[in-house]
What we know:
The complex is a heterodimer of chains A (319) and B (191). Chain A has 319 residues and is mostly beta strands. Chain A is 9% helix and 40% strand. Chain A is built from two helices and 24 strands. In chain B, 29% of the residues lie in helices and 17% in strands. In chain B, a hairpin with a 2-residue loop joins strand 3 (107-113) and strand 4. Chain B is elongated. The interface between A and B is medium-sized, with 26 and 36 residues.
Amino acid sequence: MKNKGIVIFLIILSLIIVGVVVLDYNASKPGMQPANPYEFNVDPFSKIDSALIRYKESRNLALNFSEPTGISFRGNQLFVVGDQKMQIIEPAGKLMKEVSFDQKPTCVYASTDEIFVGFQKSIAVLNRDGVKIADWNSFSDSTVITSIAEQSGTVFVADAGKRIVRKFNLGGKPQGEIVGKSGNDQIHGFIIPSPYFDLAFNMDGELWVVNPGKHSLENYTVDGKLRTWWQASSIKIEGFSGCCNPAHFAFLPDGSFVTSEKGMIRIKTYKPSGEFEGVVAAPSKFAEDGHAPDLAVDNQGNIYALDSDKKMLRLFVKK
Amino acid sequence: MENNHKKSRRDFIRSGTRLSLLITLGAVGGLAAKHVTAEKYVWQIDPFKCTQCGRCATSCVMTPSAAKCIHAYDLCGYCDLCGGYLKPDANQLSTAAENQLCPTAAIQRKYIEEPYFEYVINEDLCIGCAKCVKGCTSFGNGSLHLQIIHRICLNCNECSIARLCPSQAISRVKASKSYNVKGSFTKDGKV
């Protein structure tokens, strides 16, 4: 009788031990733990009201690049750079031409007659057939070229390393710099915390430059005088978030802005006045911690986004 | 002849015993030498695998955690609007407590020149919650990241953070390369 009691006691004890071990094992599995008081959940910021999304993704072009870096659109042709090459592609996806370089391009701009391919510290000028006609190498050691645009024979080059916009004539001769200071304390020059510094001309021939550290887009005369600017600094969808945004922008045919942000990647449109208009692509469309897509717009207002994480050219058309 | 055979067997057993002892001694000596000369391993976080879940603050056997935020200054933009320092919906870009993301005010914001600021981690105050790392990774350049500080870490046989880490970002690394600091440590793990 006494032995029977001991056996029952040992069985119960064994069951309790097994139960505790199983519970502890399950409780320590990832996903089974109680809520963490220190978790900083940024997911709510990336959720977008579907009513704000005014574009739909209509087509993707897979790119033969391991690291595409820049895109431009001109004359119904797409110019894509990356790796050590440039490809000229028809909007339907047909490869027209491929040009090789001995270093990695950072950006590209196609004007009516020339193609300007930017590298970190130099620019290659090609004719529209892809034949190199000049090399511009008169840059400083700390130069990081991130964007190029041309207007009326003057080429504007965004230098993120020196935090200035350089001006050249079509022969590559320096024509001065734009430092982005207005002369009062409101604007501190270009603040470039990371190598994202974009510029573009709108349909009226006005030069717009991103001041990413201020979350602003600034309009300068070609002489470098600040004419106007607008700013949208907010984690909310209406603004630009993080340290330095927008990373890229382009103009729609009606003068509206299309912007692309890094960090929490989102593509949005703003009216010419700077007022938030709508969303082109929500963060869920892109890789988490991915790269901000470079943008190009065709004559119909369709938006091409260069997704360097998925190595795709993604076309967004208005709903 | 028979006597010789009996002696030989005794000798065989004796020499066999000696040989066994010698082998055992050699093996023990070899293992001891290997233990002394072999490189030690320590626990460390791969900052590119880390998802900033916040478990490092609560799972480490040390209080506060041996995992701390460190700053790769060469990657930092020295921004006024720092995603690692300020709450996303901060009222102002200021040092007011209500605007700070860090629950222990372990990040010191130092003015450098208009409009640039340096962000310095106070290791004594940092609890390794990775809120700032999440903010910096999501909205900034990703210069803030977690590392296990080895003068605090007990180097447990089974790291309690590694056991719970949802992204398996913590692993044993050679003691000679005990830190995976961003900048010198790249995404593919190469230094």
